[in-house]
Sequence to fold (394 residues):
Amino acid sequence: MTTVDLPLLPLGRGVDLTSERGVECPGDLPPASDPALVERARAAKEALGDRVFVLGHHYQRDEVIQFADVTGDSFKLSRDAAGRPGAEYIVFCGVHFMAESADILTGSHQKVVLPDLAAGCSMADMAVLSQVEDAWDALAEAGVQEAVVPVTYMNSSADIKAFCGRNGGIVCTSSNADTALEWAFDQKAHLDGGGKVLFFPDQHLGRNTAVLKMGLTLDDCVVWDPHQPNGGLTTQQLADATMILWKGHCSVHGRFTPEVVDKLRATIPGIQILVHPECTHEVVLKADLVGSTEFIIKTIEAAPAGSSWAIGTELNLVKRLANDHPDKNIVFLEKNVCYCSTMNRIDLPHLVWALESLVKGVVVNQIDVDDDTERDALVALQRMLDLPGKSHRD
Ligand code: 13P
Ligand code: SF4
Fold:
């Protein structure tokens, strides 16, 4: 298996501004070819000193990660931002929903900046508030809403998190989805027949957690398709289901296949397959280990020298792990290039532009969640932060 090392596109100039929402980036970005970019980023950061705190998600490019004060998964980064009340500016090198969560969890005196507003998440965009509200109404009409707890993955917009806050629900991450589901079912344990969970936007994380960690079966799960009348389900199917999974997925993790797992096992003796729970159930079933981004990193750190691993998650992280652990044989679980295109929109020109603007006293691309949404979303986020036992890093 080969990993193709392609240069990443310098996005932000000349892109089709109408192709995605929130794309406008009116700044005069320095050209990606400018050899002084690294020095300019360093100088701007130094000029800002403790006034700025730069967060870097694990899926970011190396050219950006080198300027991060802290790296982590989406949940850890939000917590880290909240732990820096002294920083006037939080520059979030990640995607939109993460910057929103950081804004919700940080003080009102702090400003969160996303260097390119086009850095969204196609999975988060698969659940829109109006669709979720329609589904909620349909569950009421089917007579099951009272038994349902809404659970949203961190990879969702702030207004979806607020919906969960308003309706007795919770946020989860890939590290704590099982604990969050336990909490959700506990809320309805007093009902005859127990409760149900409406899980969005990622059907795979919901299914993998329900079946592999909660002891439910595939027959306990149904898929709600927001583009079909009544989600494409009958009232009886809704009544019988325990997990109602939103028809959403990650376009990156959805590309890994069981066939590549089989091929790698046949060609690399002793190889272990390590995947993120956003992969399909078929891939997860064939894997040796499944876990969040932080889990994947810790597993590789703890692995013995000489061990072989195929990793099914975003390519920037896999490449970084391979570079950082030359004593281990680390390959990518796909034959094709598999970057998250929206994560990669944060490039050095955008970072330099954001930092240099802050030096001039201009806050560009601020992510500012409105007060009502923030209040309700914080309810659902706080329920997650209060979950017993495992922390997001376990
Ligand atoms: P983490 O929760 O591990 O940060 O993952 C976010 C994500 O976008 C995974 O695709
Ligand atoms: Fe969204 Fe998938 Fe990219 Fe993560 S990897 S930000 S879930 S599109």
User: Anything to note?
Assistant: The two ends are 31 Å apart (CA to CA). The chain has three domains: 37-122+342-363, 124-250+375-385, 254-332.
